[in-house]
């Protein structure tokens, strides 16, 4: 039963990520055609490494644990809530949504959807997901490692790059 649940969740997440990458690539082509400037391109691969390692880590650790967490409904509910928030972000940004940091000259940043309440709501969704999915399958070490690595990448690299991009949108030179 657990092996099937792990395989199903891994397939769902891999499918989501692939679809999101395809959408991001399409939106990126459109943005670049409109003269977009990319920020933080040099750190983009670090997120691929993090998310790939996270996926492999919780799958392997979850299989080794061999059982769902005793509080699996909590973790599954948090995962579902994170998905709702993530797709609210994607829908709210529409063709401007991307996994990369792109600024189209003269375009203001969005204050729609969850962006009315948080500056970086998608990162909250990802942080919840990186912890909840491994914990669902008892993969405590993967949850801890992914959460710490994600926090470091976001706080020290990604959010500062995004803030520079947002500042450029507000104060173009």
How is this structure best described in words?
With 173 residues, this protein is mostly helical. The chain has one domain (2-170): Four Helix Bundle (Hemerythrin (Met), subunit A), CATH 1.20.120. It is 71% helix and 3% strand. It has helices at 2-33, 44-65, 72-93, 121-136, 140-170; strands spanning 37-39, 101-103. A two-stranded antiparallel ribbon has the order 1-2. Helix 1 (2-33) packs antiparallel against helix 2 and helix 2 packs antiparallel against helix 5. The longest helix is centred in the first third of the chain and has 32 residues, at 2-33.
Report the biggest beta sheet as strand number plus sense, adding barrel if it closes. Answer: 2 strands, antiparallel
Helix content: over 70%
First-residue to last-residue Cα separation: 58 Å
**CATH architecture heading:** Up-down Bundle
Sheet with most strands: strand arrangement: 1-2
CATH topology: Four Helix Bundle (Hemerythrin (Met), subunit A)
Strand-residue fraction? under 5%
pLDDT < 50 stretches: none
Query: Looking at the chains present, what oligomeric state does this protein adopt?
Result: single chain
- If you average the pLDDT, what whole number results? 94
H/E series, N to C?
Answer: HEHHEHH
Please give the domain count.
1
Q: For the record, what CATH class applies?
A: Mainly Alpha
- Secondary structure: number of strands: 2
Sheet/helix structural class: mainly alpha
The coarse overall form would be elongated
């Amino acid at each position: 039963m657990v092996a099937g649940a792990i395989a199903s969740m891994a397939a769902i997440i891999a499918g989501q990520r692939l679809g999101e990458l395809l959408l991001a690539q399409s939106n990126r082509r459109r943005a670049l055609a409109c003269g977009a400037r990319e920020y933080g391109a040099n750190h983009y691969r670090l997120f691929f490494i993090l998310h790939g390692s996270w996926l492999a880590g919780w799958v392997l650790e979850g299989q080794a644990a061999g059982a769902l967490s005793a509080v699996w409904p909590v973790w599954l509910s948090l995962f579902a809530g994170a998905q709702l928030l993530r797709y609210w972000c994607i829908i709210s940004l529409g063709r401007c949504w991307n996994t990369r940091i792109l600024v189209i000259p003269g375009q203001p940043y969005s204050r729609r959807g969850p962006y009315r309440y948080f500056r970086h709501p998608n990162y909250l969704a990802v942080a919840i997901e990186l912890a909840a999915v491994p914990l669902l399958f008892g993969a405590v070490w993967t949850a801890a490692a992914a959460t710490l690595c994600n926090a470091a990448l976001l706080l020290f690299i990604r959010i500062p790059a995004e803030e520079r991009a947002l500042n450029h949108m507000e104060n173009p030179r």
